[in-house]
Amino acid sequence: MAEATLTLNDMLALPTTGFPQQILTAGVPDDELNALKARVSGALKGMPWGHLEETVCSRLSDLLNQDPMELISSSWEKYRVLADAAEQSKSGETVFVPLAEHSITSELHPYVEIHLGPEIIRKIEFDVTLTFQLKGLVLKIEEEKIKSVEAGSCEGSGEIQVKDISLWKRDFKSIDLPGRVKLGSGIAVH
Question: pTM for the whole thing?
Fold first, then answer.
C-alpha cells in the first residue's frame, strides 16, 4: 500500500455530510420512491429519511477512501516500455522508467446496499469516472513489478453518477505527488 495519505475523497473534495443532490432518489421513479420511503418509515419508525441519505453518503465515502496511485499504477501494467523494464529487472536490477506526460481514465463501480433485516431493499450502483493528467513521473521497477512512483504531479477531474444522473463533479488542480510513493509488494507488469 502507498505511504501517501492522499485519497480519492480528497481529490474529489467529497463533502462529509451528503451530496447537493438527493443520493437515494436519483433515477428512481416517484412510485418506487414512495414505496421505498413507506417501507423504511414502517420498519425504522422515527428514523428521518435524511439520516438514511447521510448513512449512504458515508458508506460511499468509505468506498472511495482509497489511494489514487493504486488506480493509476495498475493502468500501467501492460505498457510495452514497462514490460521491457520488467524483463530487465528479472536479473535483480532496479530499472527507473521516466514516463512522458499522459492521461489515464479509470472507472469504478462501487455500490451501497440498504438492508432491512436480511432483505436488500435498495441497491445503489455508482459510476465513478476519474481522469488523471500525469506529468514528470518516474517509475521504479524491481522483480518485474512497479515498486514505487518516484516523483511527478497529477491533475484531472472526477464525476460520480447514478443511473446517468450526475451527483458530483469536480476538477482537481495540480497536486505534487510526494517524492516517493511506495506501492507495497508492487504492481506486476505483464
Answer: 0.77
